[in-house]
Structures are given as C-alpha cells and as structure tokens.
C-alpha cells in the first residue's frame, strides 16, 4: 500500500459576506512583514536614514504585485489577456508569476535607488535576502490553494489534492520550493552577518540568482505544466525564464570578484543642517 498525504484544506480562512480572507493572501502579507522585520535589522546595523525602509517597502509592494501579475498574463496566457485587457486587473481570479515579480522588483529598485541616490546593487544585495524567505511563504500560499503542484509520484510524501479532483499522489512542488528558498535565505543571511554588512557589491545578488533560479529550474522537471502549450516544449516556460537569471547570477558573481568594491552608506549620507 502506498503512503501519501490527503490534502483537502479550504483556501478560505473565513468570510464575511462577499469579503473573504484566504491563506494565500495571509502568506503574501507574512512575506512582506517578515521581509520588513529583517530589512529593519539591516537599517539599524548600517545606520541607514529615517524613512529609507518605509519608502523601499512601498516600491517593493507595487513592483512585486504589478510584475507578478503582468508576468503571468504576458508569459503564460498572452493571447487571452491581450484580447481581454481588463482581465489583467482581476488579480483575485489568480495568476501571478515569480519571474514577472523578479522583473518588477528590479524595475522598482532601480527607481528607488535613483530617488535615494544610492547604488542599485547595494539595495539589491540586501533585498534579495528578504525575497528568498518571502518566496517560501508565497509557495506555502500556493500549497493552501492546491495549485502549482507536480506530476504523479510514489514517494511517501506525495499529496493527493482532493479539491482539484486528484485521486493519485502528486509531488508537492510548493513545499520543495519553499524549503529550497528557506535554505537559500539562511545561507544569504549568514553571509551577510559574516561580512558584518560590508558586502562586495553584487556578491549576494549573484549567489541568490544562481541558487534560487537553479532550484526553480530543477523542480520544474517534476512540476505539471501550467498551460497547455508547455506540454510540447523540451523545457517548460518556467525553465526557459530561469536560464537568463542564472546566467546573470554568474555574471554578478564574477563582477563582485573582479571589482570587489564595498559601498558604505554612511559615507553617502549628508548630515542635517545644524549638525557637525
């Protein structure tokens, strides 16, 4: 007899009239909250100016949500959404892509860094530490939604996603990714503490891109296709989109060794009037 886990969790925590609170939304909120707490430690350790984190948080939220939504619409179902553009706004119907979120975050961080006059790579090296653990929470949200899981498996930790009408155990790829992202977070945070915040520009970012998208690339092999056209591809869309990020990670890692510069924020912060 095969061992497996029957998964039949209601994605709604509770509802009041038309308003409902879902585990997926809770996991997104937790991702931003935990990220805020961790980055606040960076702010205190490196004596960043007041308001730096609050401004960064707003840029991150907007960049993540818009990027993730547009990424899903344009990468996975472009014909439908380009024919029905108003559907793009209906985020509550589902459909967010992590690769699109990555692009949205990069654009948001570019705008943020330009406004605050700090090197973009300095901000990115710290933000990706929080993004790693945030990604773990979001994948747990996917698990509660019984979505983005894998192909059939005989492994004892296979999940039968009852709410989707499944009768055979499937790989819980949401958990695979969540555990991978948590391990990446622990490694990156340890590297940050080991360097006492004085990181070579691009070093953490390079490792983040290689490990996170490398893990995503491998896990895709046991993940079910998200859209019909992926069934006939040698590599699925998630894998093709991961390759440029992995290549960029290698590039940033090489750059950090060839030009081992370190940005110290205190040197770039002008004292307020009346202070010496």
Verbal overview:
- The protein is mainly alpha-helical.
- The protein is built from 8 helices and 4 strands, in the order E-E-E-H-H-H-H-H-E-H-H-H.
- The protein has a two-stranded parallel sheet with strand order 1-4. A two-stranded antiparallel sheet has the order 2-3.
- A hairpin with a 2-residue loop joins strand 2 (12-16) and strand 3 (19-22).
- The radius of gyration is 20 Å and the shape is globular.
- It starts with a strand and ends in an 18-residue tail after the last helix.
Give the arrangement of secondary structure elements.
Elements: E1 5-7, E2 12-16, E3 19-22, H1 23-46, H2 52-75, H3 78-83, H4 98-116, H5 120-144, E4 159-161, H6 173-194, H7 203-219, H8 237-258
Parallel strand pairs: 1-4
Antiparallel strand pairs: 2-3
């Amino acid at each position: 007899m095969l061992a497996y886990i029957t998964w039949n969790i209601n994605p709604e925590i509770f509802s009041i009239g038309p308003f409902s609170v879902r585990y997926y939304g809770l996991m997104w909120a937790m991702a931003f909250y935990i990220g805020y707490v961790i980055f606040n430690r960076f702010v205190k350790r490196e004596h960043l100016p007041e308001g730096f984190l609050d401004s960064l948080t707003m840029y991150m939220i907007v960049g993540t949500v818009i990027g993730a939504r547009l990424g899903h619409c344009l990468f996975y179902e472009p014909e439908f959404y380009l024919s029905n553009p108003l559907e793009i706004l209906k985020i509550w119907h589902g459909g967010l892509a992590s690769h699109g979120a990555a692009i949205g975050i990069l654009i948001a961080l570019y705008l943020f860094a330009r406004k605050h006059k700090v090197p973009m790579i300095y901000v990115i090296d710290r933000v990706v530490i929080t993004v790693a653990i945030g990604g773990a929470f979001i994948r747990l949200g996917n698990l509660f939604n019984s979505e983005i899981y894998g192909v059939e498996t005989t492994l004892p930790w296979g999940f039968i996603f009852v709410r989707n009408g499944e009768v055979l155990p499937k790989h819980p790829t949401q958990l695979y990714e969540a555990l991978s992202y948590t391990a990446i977070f622990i490694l990156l945070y340890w590297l940050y503490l080991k360097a006492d915040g004085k990181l070579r520009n691009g070093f953490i970012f390079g490792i983040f891109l290689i490990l996170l998208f490398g893990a995503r690339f491998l896990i895709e092999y046991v993940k079910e296709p998200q859209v019909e056209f992926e069934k006939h591809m040698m590599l699925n869309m998630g894998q093709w989109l991961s390759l440029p990020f992995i290549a960029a990670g290698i590039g940033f890692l090489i750059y950090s060794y060839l030009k081992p510069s370190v940005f110290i924020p205190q040197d770039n912060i002008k004292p307020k009037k009346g202070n010496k």
